[in-house]
Amino acid sequence: MRTFLLCSLSLLLCTCAPAPKEAEDTETETAAAEFTGEWEVLFDGTSVEKWRGYNQAEFPTHGWRVENGELMVEHSGMEEAGSGGDIITREKFGDFELELEFALTDTSNSGILYLVQEVPETPIWHSAPEYQLLDDETYKVTYPELTSSQLTGANYDMHAQTVNHSKPIGEWNQARILKKGKHVEHWLNGNLVISYELHDEDWKARYAKSKFAEYPTYASAEEGHLGLQDHGHLCRFRNVRVRRN
Length: 245
Description:
Blueprint: H1 2-16, H2 21-31, E1 40-43, E2 51-53, E3 64-67, E4 70-73, E5 87-93, E6 96-104, E7 109-116, E8 130-134, H3 136-142, E9 172-180, E10 183-188, E11 191-197, H4 201-209, E12 224-228, E13 235-243
Antiparallel strand pairs: 1-13, 2-5, 3-4, 4-13, 5-12, 6-9, 6-13, 7-8, 7-12, 9-10, 10-11
Pfam families: 3keto-disac_hyd
Keywords: Signal
GO molecular function, one term: hydrolase activity
């Protein structure tokens, strides 16, 4: 009888025990996918009316062009930045789901930025997390010191790409970024590349070791503009759309 009672008590305790933390984490990680708002087209293949230059009133007059239904940042031969400059949405976004297609060319280097804050005479990346776009294989050979946090799909210099889900150079890829509260996800061609929580202890440790540590504006706001980077390399975009929660 004593053995039976002990077993019964043990079973009762196991049944009533709270769910393990892993289950709570899983629920948090999938919550960002629950976006139900209407899609808003940010680039329809012809018009750039929803965009303007970073720290500029209007869209750049050179360095970017629309051709064959694509928005292109032109190759300028410059190492650090192109002649047109980065572009941002006219509107700001807090919680959002962003989708777009991009096609890289040989030596492409660009990025998709979010939570952008406009600070006069300050580069866009001082404030904005970046979904990196890169010709990974070429840059790995050219720059052996390149890290996984500087490859396509990574949160630049913060969260690393562990598997390269990119399609061959010249083919179209789909990028997806979700932000809900503090939770952020980067997706590439239907694959979750990274998932992180803004300003948690892990984020703070990465930030302290990153190139952004000296810039207090980095990821500091709850909402901001979306942006596309002009790094002086040809990169093509199409089917750009966003929706709010």
